[in-house]
Amino acid sequence: MAGVVAAFLTRVKSGFQRLLERPSTVDLKKYKDLLTSVRWREEKVAELSDEELTAAATALRERKALDQQAQVELCVLGREAARRALEQRPYDMQLVGALELLQGRVVEMGTGEGKTLAGALAAAGYAVQGRSVHVMSVNDYLARRDAEWMRPVYELLGVSVGWVDQESSPEERRAAYACDVTYGAVSEIGFDVLRDRLCTSVADLVHREPDVALIDEADSVLVDEARVPLVMAGSTDDAQADPEVAAIVRTLRPGQHYERDEDNRNAWLTSRGAKLVEKALGDIDLYSGDHSDRLAAVNAALHAQALLTRDVDYIVRDGKVHLINTSRGRIALLQRWPDGLQAAVEAKERLKPTESGEVLDSISVQGLIGRYRRVCGMTGTAQAVAEQLREFYDLKVSVIPPNKPCVRVDAADRVFATVEQKEAALIAEIVEAHETGRPILVGTLDVAESERIASLLAEAGVTAVVLNAKNDAEEAAIVADAGAHAAVTVSTQMAGRGTDIRLGGAGGSEADHDKVAELGGLYVMSCGHYGSSRLDNQLRGRSGRQGDPGGSVVYCSLADELVVQFAPEATAGSEPDEDGRLEDSTSARFIEHAQKVAEGVNLDIHRNTWRYTRLVERQRGLVLAYRDDVLRTDLAAKQLAEQAPQRWAELVEEHTAEVMEKVARQITLHHLDQRWSQHLAFLGDVRETIHLRALARETPIDEFHRVAIGEFRGIMKEISTLAAESLESVAITEDGADLAAAGLSRPTSTWTYMVHDNPFDSEAEQALQRVRASIRKVKTGR
Amino acid sequence: MLSAFRSALATPDLRRKILFTLMIIAIYRVGATIPSPGVSYPNVKRCLENVDDQGVVQLLNLFSGGALLQLSVFALGIMPYITASIIIQLLTVVIPRFEQLKKEGQSGQGKLTQFTRYLTIALAILQATGIVAMADRGQLFGNCQDPIIPNSNIFTLIVIVVTMTAGTAIIMWFGELITERGIGNGMSLLMFINIAARIPAEGAAILDKGGVTFAVVCVFALLIIASVVFVEQGQRRIPVQYAKRMIGRRMYGGTSTYLPLKVNQAGVIPVIFASSLLYLPDLISRLVGADGAGWQNFIANYIVKQDSWVHISVYFLLIIFFTYFYITITFNVNERADEMKKFGGFIPGIRPGRPTSEYLQFVLSRITLPGSLYLGIIAVLPNFFLEVTDSGQNQNFPFGGTAVLIMVGVGLDTVKQIESQLMQRNYEGFLK
């Protein structure tokens, strides 16, 4: 009995803790007085001229901390500035959102609640405290749009604002980052961090010290894309994927020469296939260990040939391979597969190979965010990831209640036995709803599906606009019109995100709005569940903004990819009716189960990646700190003088101390960058086999740390030794060292990209889990 | 080593973790000596002095740190929890619902843990009832006449059962607390403490026999422990390459990418299997009842008597057999080879698929031989010194066989964990 009570008490305690930490709606009482004071002050501020308003905002900078009084002032001035500049008076809830952002929270605000403006007010709030703010968007288009849109507000508040995008020149970047507030896509800001890594003089740096990060669509950036590494590569003279291998692999037949696993994530040669390839390559032994790069080329070619399908995983346009991001269902312009694979796909399609080279440095989005002293964010769906935000970023979530309550009607799932039946029913429902003139947004899972649905609709006599592989600006314009009367829009996940769908269309009048509202508002239909309930909610959230009416429904089937992959045991609980509809609870539960499994798998992968990258980020921090010292001080010269005193003295004699300081810096930085990229490559290789350590009942992550730390320990010393060696041979001119002549050429060109969700790594992780599970069984048995 | 400990203690959060673990252990040990209400402690003490039983109860007693025979509030130790988690693990294979939960990741795992806890409580009630019943009927200590529970009305018995069950729940909580906020795996650590707790008592018993004997035993024990530590860390590292990703780049992993095979890949399980199997004939003989038949005499003289050469050689051979057996079922070379093939890995010079699995099998069987011999020797060694260690219970002797293997295993794991925590803070390691 006492045991039960003890267990009960533990449960009560943990339940209580959960309750305390639950992301809850923000306590409005706290803000009641503040909002009243704001309203009370509003009239007075309205009488100020623009100049006086700016002066009042600038006066805020005098204050040391943003106390209650300053917060009131900020809200009043911000509200007035927005009213004058945008003709929008921020709602109370937007002010509350801004204030929560100033506390370093991730705020949840529904679509159409004015996140952008709330974010801008918060950014201005940070700026008047003398801090520099990076507002991170998901893409260049949104970064630029928001910056331009909010600029007048910032100007009235005396805050400078800038933006960067892919095309910005280094000077433009430097100017943008020098502003109080800088807008930019996460990837662009990250790439700038990486590019700064290669500078050899202080004047070339574009970034300032990272301070505040305000992240738009925080869930997607911090969770969905957190494990995507941003990579900077430099060209090398090394061999490309050769067309010869691609030609050989093209002749292989599945089943006979190679095999695939059920879920199509791996392919490998059979022994017959291996013999054939070996013969074609001139009777070599692929597996002797001497032909590793040949084998790697064969494996990459096989992967490209057997597992990647044109128009599903990638498209070919303008003689280039473009990846399709399956989670967002659009072309991912900046993404590449890990180098070998990208080249192999190009060879498969007989395209001219793009540049390939070695990875100079990479940083994960998580590592990028970790550099900032203060992180806050906003999104429409934060609650579902509250646990993860807390675990990985130590961020708390605040839910801002909507200005007007949401009246959207979310219907229960409609489950079907097969995909065809599901689609037939979906089309029928679209046709029916379309006849009334109600606008419809159809969410699909991938590009191929969106096209299929569109052609089915065309057959049924409904013209639909398809959004999948266009550029962000165009998409935004189309999505904005998705609420127009009788509009049918078929879209992949998050196409045109960040854009509000107004009922009656973007330029529609009040009457247009009311006409559509009377029909029931925007009807969101989904072609199946996404891998997480959060993505489902994002799609649903496009309807029912600002208290508008709206509806949503999900059409799914037991043959959907999600179910097949994550709940292969799913069986219908009842006989389907003639349309294939399943109305039993068992089927519905399987669908839910599959989504939960998918969420669990993704979380595990995220957590695992995070655990493996944490130490590397730390080491990067140490290297960067050292690099910064070399860059800004005469550290390199001192070290070289110590390492090779004689040679150094000679050279200083021969040239001047000033020139030599520069030479020392150049040489040291070269070896530092080189050594770091080697270290990363080394860790990459170790990472790939580390799961095998579990066989000896060792913890792979601990072993990884052991290896990584052991390797890192010698790096700094090695760099100065190498630098001293180079000092012997390098030719010195007035402009510094001629590194190229000494065989120490820096990469001729560098470029940046994001690694597309690495098919190899996630597999290795699955293998790891399997090994670990069997080991765990053994351990408990002991 | 000492400096590493010092730096461990100098790191604030590591120090907090270590101190927290020590505090839990202290509370646990105190609880292990508090008798349950209604148990007559003087009588228990008197019975303990002339106990001569051997077998499973003794082993359980060892695993509970001597708490079992004292009928303390923590008498059941962590065994119910371990049993429960094994059962739940097995059930995930059998019951589809459990399998689903397991796949659901964190939330599903949480539910399984909850089931494990309930099952632990149920097992604890069962086991406590059994022990209390045995104690009440005077069977716990064989032929001891003193009543252990003097006032044995039903209410007293229920109170004892409830107390012990509560004790188990608390131990379970302790274990989880250590895993969560302390250092090392809580369950194994508590097991380690239980065994280690017997050392002083046994040591004192040996010291009574004279200083020289004691010194010899100490030296001998240290030798065993050192050799166990040595062999436990022994690995055969088969180099592995994953030629999947990089084209036109030399392999960087070098000596750090390998497939490790432990010399003692099987761990302590073969020893436990062998000793339980050896106990069976004795059990059967007792169940049948003593009628003086020849086979029963044989069992009594050669199997049960642990210093007989029959017992020693059968024990030794069984351990070797079970080592091979256990490695065959737990280490599936075909699966390993398949997995490597799928993910593009290979052993340089060996073709993937069949040749790889044959090669792995070859290395494994070669390495298992010394491994099994080592296990056998460590397990039977104490049997040669029974006169010294007294009472003919090698299992109960904390320097012998099973106990040393478990203690060293847990000890190494824990040190490794402390080390890896230190490493993340860039300190010199423990094992250097």
Automatic annotation (TrEMBL), chain A:
Its EC number is 7.4.2.8. It catalyses: ATP + H2O + cellular proteinSide 1 = ADP + phosphate + cellular proteinSide 2. Residues 96-255 form the Helicase ATP-binding domain. It is an enzyme of class 7 (translocase). ATP binds at residues 94, 112-116, 500. GO terms for cellular component: cell envelope Sec protein transport complex; cytosol; plasma membrane. Residues 418-609 form the Helicase C-terminal domain. CDD domains: DEXDc_SecA (cd17928), SF2_C_secA (cd18803). It holds the Pfam family P-loop_SecA. Gene3D superfamilies: Helical scaffold and wing domains of SecA, P-loop containing nucleotide triphosphate hydrolases, SecA, preprotein cross-linking domain. SUPFAM superfamilies: Helical scaffold and wing domains of SecA, P-loop containing nucleoside triphosphate hydrolases, Pre-protein crosslinking domain of SecA. It comes from the Bacteria. One of its GO terms (biological process) is intracellular protein transmembrane transport. It is a peripheral membrane protein. Keywords: ATP-binding, Cell membrane, Cytoplasm, Helicase, Hydrolase, Membrane, Nucleotide-binding, Protein transport, Translocase, Translocation, Transport. The keyword Metal-binding does not apply. It is found in: Cell membrane; Cytoplasm; Membrane. SMART domains: SecA_DEAD, SecA_PP_bind. One of its GO terms (molecular function) is helicase activity. Residues 13-587 form the SecA family profile domain. The keyword Acyltransferase does not apply. NCBIfam families: SecA2_Mycobac (TIGR04221). Part of the Sec protein translocase complex. Interacts with the SecYEG preprotein conducting channel. Has a central role in coupling the hydrolysis of ATP to the transfer of proteins into and across the cell membrane, serving as an ATP-driven molecular motor driving the stepwise translocation of polypeptide chains across the membrane. Belongs to the SecA family. Monomer and homodimer. Part of the essential Sec protein translocation apparatus which comprises SecA, SecYEG and auxiliary proteins SecDF. Other proteins may also be involved. This is Protein translocase subunit SecA. It comes from Actinokineospora spheciospongiae.
